[in-house]
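Fill in residues.
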């Protein structure tokens, strides 16, 4: 079975995000970029399924700017077999919206015919949490989101999902779309030999026009603001005073 794993190039999670002076968006100048952490988890899960003999090939795909090739090489170094880069923007500040990404991925699925798509549940830059669900809808496939455990049993995937009330286990018939949550696994580090080998693995370059998908944005960012600074705390003299502040000032009681 072939596995398809979409990955996204985002600001590294260790970097403090800066807002542009004019509030038009996030400043990306000289900022370290890396693979979206949830996508990294999805790649790791695909590799583990291959190591178990469930999968025969892992294809990673990224939609965005040409620099996303670096992100794909990271996935190849982790253990993916080949990669597809779909250039859909010239400016790194342009975020391709989930519907356009889902349409492009649906076209890749039609060409590659994978038995399973494993994606990160969301990207840490826009927190949309929509691409996987949209892809499943476009394909007419079953979906299992927020996966914290995945097992393949015959022609079905048994997925444990993290929900507000605890854990939920579902079965979806393959082919299907699964989105990875934070506790699904701990991604491995790419070794130096594998990093060198990744440079020789095939990376196919495509454009959005090759798939006939319009990636023009439908949303407009009106303004971007940094979170308000945290206010200084206060000391209370008694439990009664604490309860009064929580009730009258914080409004949490």
């Amino acid at each position: 079975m072939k596995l398809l794993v979409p990955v996204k190039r985002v600001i590294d999670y260790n970097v403090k995000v800066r807002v542009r002076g004019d509030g038009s968006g996030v400043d990306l100048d000289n900022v370290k970029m890396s693979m979206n952490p949830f996508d990294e988890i999805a790649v790791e899960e695909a590799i583990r399924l291959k190591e178990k003999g469930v999968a025969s090939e892992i294809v990673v795909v990224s939609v965005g700017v040409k620099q996303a090739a670096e992100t794909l090489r990271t996935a190849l170094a982790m253990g993916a077999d080949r990669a597809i880069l779909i250039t859909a923007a010239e400016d790194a500040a342009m975020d391709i919206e989930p519907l356009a990404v889902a349409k492009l991925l649906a076209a890749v699925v039609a060409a590659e015919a994978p038995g399973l798509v494993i994606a990160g549940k969301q990207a840490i830059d826009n927190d949309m949490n929509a691409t996987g669900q949209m892809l499943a809808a476009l394909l007419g496939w079953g979906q299992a989101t927020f996966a914290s455990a995945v097992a393949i049993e015959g022609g079905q995937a048994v997925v444990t999902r993290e929900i507000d009330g605890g854990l939920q286990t579902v079965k979806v018939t393959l082919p299907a779309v699964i989105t990875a949550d934070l506790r699904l696994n701990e991604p491995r580090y790419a070794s130096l030999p594998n990093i060198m080998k990744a440079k020789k693995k095939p990376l196919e370059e495509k454009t959005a026009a090759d798939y006939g998908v319009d990636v023009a944005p439908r949303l407009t960012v009106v303004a971007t603001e940094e979170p308000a600074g945290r206010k200084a705390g206060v000391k209370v003299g008694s439990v009664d005073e604490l309860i009064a502040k929580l009730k009258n000032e914080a409004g949490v009681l």
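The chain has a mean pLDDT of 93.
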